[in-house]
């Protein structure tokens, strides 16, 4: 198994200052993965990215928007197209930093599609809220959409995008809503309680692309077992029916039970179980072609580095034993970077990752109602029976 990991410290320049999307979470992820030997495994190549060109960015983003991002990057005060807000403050070099992330994810997808590598990871990527003509939700350029568009341009006929961030993958869904070649699947906290207010189960794709969007909106408080129950009740069925040639996953870690910006209750153990399930599905339905990116995640020390190190381990080979201790040198670095945060001693929270398979019931709980809503509205487009647990 060969894996390409896109990484360079220049990716840490995507820095909005005093802001939840702190690049320290990516720095600590790569430091933890390296200290545990994940990046030194046989078959793993770490590659520096090149920035996405304006021409490539324009396959997803309006040229006028790109021009505004460039202008804002020079220090000009700009408050249009979603920029200059609390969510998306402008910063010096913003265009270059954003284009580099897009280039990293683009290169990951190109390499997998062309058969240069079996799997690829762009940990700094996953900026799924950016729209064609505006910034949104901490995201300037939509690197997953740029990468997927590139794979389509290279000849792909079916690409599946699975988003497990706590927030709905609205930008990617919007960009491909009318394109039947791209299936977007998002599991997220209910839009009734969380940004961006989209991702209801009746969002199923535009004219001519009906069934190309699948949304599972989960109630606040959903834990590992409930989340895994919902995942397995929806995602395998639609992926098997769609038969993607490549699986792209956005693996935001803000489903964590102590994430400050959301209300789901997963542990790093539940997140690790999700990565294992995605790996198995990539092998089963996409011939092993798997591109994984990061995304949200704001428990900067407590969760994100451990979650994404588990992701890197799963993508590059064997999963790490959850009981693995975090190395002393990493704990020291984490304390140096964020002295006020709790530094985990092991790679586990002791989460329970066994789950009961979904079956239709007469008196379902809130999670089961969410599952049934998605199955009822989306499954018929795939020729699947919403009421048959075998589908």
Automatic annotation (TrEMBL):
Lineage in the entry?
Answer: Bacteria, Bacillati, Actinomycetota, Actinomycetes, Micromonosporales
Residue ranges occupied by any Histone deacetylase domain in the UniProt entry:
19-314
- Give the record's family classification: Belongs to the histone deacetylase family.
UniProt keyword annotation of Oxidoreductase present: no
GO terms (BP aspect): acetoin catabolic process; epigenetic regulation of gene expression
Which species is listed as the source?
Answer: Dactylosporangium sucinum
Q: Which biological pathway?
A: Ketone degradation; acetoin degradation
Q: Which Pfam families does the entry link to? A: Hist_deacetyl (PF00850)
Output the Gene3D superfamilies linked to this UniProt entry.
Histone deacetylase domain
Any single GO molecular-function term of the entry would be: histone deacetylase activity
Q: Is the keyword GTP-binding in the record?
A: no
Keywords per UniProt: Acetoin catabolism
Q: For the region Disordered, what residue ranges are annotated? A: 335-359
The leader peptide range reads: none
Listed name of the protein = Acetoin utilization protein AcuC
Q: Which InterPro entries match?
A: AcuC (IPR003085), HDACs (IPR000286), His_deacetylse_dom (IPR023801), His_deacetylse_dom_sf (IPR037138), Ureohydrolase_dom_sf (IPR023696)
Q: Which SUPFAM superfamilies match?
A: Arginase/deacetylase (SSF52768)
